[in-house]
Specification:
Elements (H helix, E strand, L loop, with lengths): L1 E2 L9 E2 L29 H71 L5 E9 L6 E4 L6 E3 L2 E3 L2 E3 L4 E13 L8 E8 L7 E8 L9 E13 L4 E6 L13 E6 L1
Antiparallel strand pairs: 1-2, 3-4, 3-5, 3-13, 6-7, 7-12, 8-11, 8-13, 9-10, 9-12
InterPro entries: TNF, TNF_dom, Tumour_necrosis_fac-like_dom
Subcellular location: Membrane
Pfam family, one: TNF
Length: 257
Amino acid sequence: MQQNLSYVYPQIFLVDRGGSGGSGGPGAPGPETTALPAWPVLPPQLKQGRGGRGGCTALLLALLLLTMAGLGLGAYYILRLQQELTELRQSSTSTSSRNLTPVLEKQIGLAVEKKETKRMAHLTVKSASRGSETLLWEPVVGKAFTEGMEYRDGALLINETGQYFLYSRLLLRGTTCPRDRAVLHRVFKRSGRYPAAISLLEDRKLSYCSGERMWTSSSYLAAVVQLQKFDRVSVNVSEPQLVSLEPANTYFGIYKI
């Protein structure tokens, strides 16, 4: 009995009919021989396929591990760069603030040194001067104040040459109506060089009353004027007995532009 081992499947056994152990002649059939079962052998293609799958799995696993390692390393470097950038910003901010603080202090100091003193005043009526048309004013009580200048004897003393805004308001009130007399409201100044009064603002009211038993009228003056140091600015009215002594309605003010 011979077996062709190069043929994998199915198993075929060749039987020699002319064996010497038989009782028959050369042409007689020999005894039947039963084929033994053989162990199954896998085809070469199947063996190679299993080995290739294992190699691919190992390769994919290695690539996955490398990818994960690369991602982790990249995330670490990104976090580190962010931390360094934050520290750099903090250091630059603190440095700039330290450098800026002396500059700001210096600028503020210069601004304070160069800041001009405010020169202004708002006076409310006090009374009319006896025997004179010049009005007297209250410099400190209520809404009245003076800043950077002085009030003396019914006049504001100018202590710096420049342009000033002047304003004056009078409330006139009476029970009779002298139609033949005009009321003159005037703002004027005096100086050491020119003793005479120099008119700055003037309002002449002719029809300021009516035939009614009680009447009121008002006069308002305002303008920007050039004043010199040591000028004295005052207000007078031709009929001081008609001036209302209410501080909210009769006042006089000035401020430097």
